[in-house]
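User: Hello, can you help with two protein structures?

Assistant: Certainly.
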Amino acid sequence: MTTKPGPGRIALASYIGSVIEWYDFNIYGLATALVFSKQFFPSFSEAGGTLAALAAFAVGFVARPVGALISGHFGDRVGRKAMLVASLLTMGVATTLIGLLPTYAAIGVWAPILLVVLRLVQGIGVGGEWGGAALMAVEHAPPNRRALYGAFPQIGIPSGILVSQLAFLLLTQVFSDDTLQSWAWRLPFLFSGVLIVVGLIVRASITETEEFERAREARDIARLPLVEVFRRSPLQLFAGSLLSFAGPTLGTFLSVYMVSYGTKQLHLSSGTMLWITVVLSLPWIAMMLFAGRAADRFGRKRMFVIGSGLAAVAVFPMFLMVNTAAVPLVFTGLLLMTAANSVINGAQPAMLTQMFPASVRYSGASICFQVGSIVGGGIVPLVAASSYARFGTSTAVAIVIGVVCLVSMLAVLPVRRELLDVGAPSPQRTVDHSLSEQ
């Protein structure tokens, strides 16, 4: 008789799969900052090539809601596990193919076109990842540990970023810049093929959640989950999408935009910026787990408001420190923003999943997270880069980041605490999931 995996093992499986997905997604971002403007957009000026490469990077975020809709529909009808496997395969195949893609010098305009197409496929894959991983972890967790277990897919984000940064850092140490630009940049993409196999083995061991099984046994499976979630929970969709702006904004800002900013504006070496972000990933992981536990204890809504408010304010002194170009101050400034981002991401998965009933939860949580990612991870970096190009000051970038974080903070304030803190130890713990339908 097969032993059913416990919540800790499920959380670990969600974490490992998330690491692989975000490794794939982030190596594209790093290649955008370091390579793609020259290899795929050489006819532009330096600033134009950077903007074109960032636009191609943003396409992946635009495609993520499509992946969320597809995975959400089948995840709510067929099950969470099947869609987690499908998202991993989609992402991995697209990433590996990018590593085999000819450059502009070889096939001309078809190179950037194919790059954008594969980035779209990447976006579809990762769009289905977060909702399924978060649901598997949260729905398997004890009620008073949902934020903690929900943080495991979240820490897969900095972990995946860490692995991808180490990969590129290794390349910068082993190969010359000319070799890196010529062909060595392909190696991290090709390595994704190995990671696909690892991820599939890990995810084969997980089982469906009891909440989904109960919904299936009760025949509470929506025929069209997308229609049902808009009909039953429109306010939750709106608020959940807005509160999802801050996390992707800060994640992309720290791991991609600041690498480009440090190398192009501060004239620090790419190796220095990669080392800074690599070292930052370690406290990022630890702080996110701590934030998840704190969210279970003190309330997910309260911790989210603290994190987003801190981020909106801290971005200004962060740039004051970063603009000195002194490595210790650059690290300290980015660590400050990392702490704020950790508080936000520690609370978010449990909040979003608990806002929706089980029958449409995959669709609802995925849509919110991925719509937020379009703005936070795709559009905001473009706006930030354009603002800097127009005004020539980091203050303009700080204002953009601060406003986005304030929007997320204000979005969560009107939402009743009982909807966001279901299962957390609280004297107000009297509301069940049915309230999320009101």
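That covers the first. Now for the second protein you mentioned:
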Amino acid sequence: MSTKSRERLYGSAIRIAAEQATRARQKADRLACIAWNKLMLEAGGPAQPSPTLGEALNAGFGYLEVRCLGCDTNQTVALDIIRRPKTTPIHEMERYMRCNDCSRLRGYPYKRSVLVALREFKITATTR
């Protein structure tokens, strides 16, 4: 007499539950990023608390828009190339952002920048 394996009995139910959990986590991360964007764009801040790098990447927001206070230009930074743990909150990235143009002009790293919002796509001069 043989018995059915646990994988055969419960395997599909476990896989379905894991997929549902993944989708729910992605939806929760997306809603957290959208809420933070609304807070930053419509209410003007504060940047704390913010989603983490991992949450932003999981939600599909691959770029962070930053505005330089020196030359008043907006730039996007790709979140997947930032060399920080994925548990780092987005608002902690503000102190590391610097404008290349202002830094070159002044001769030292110019770090006066402000976070604008998380973006799904890189902004250019033609698309905003």
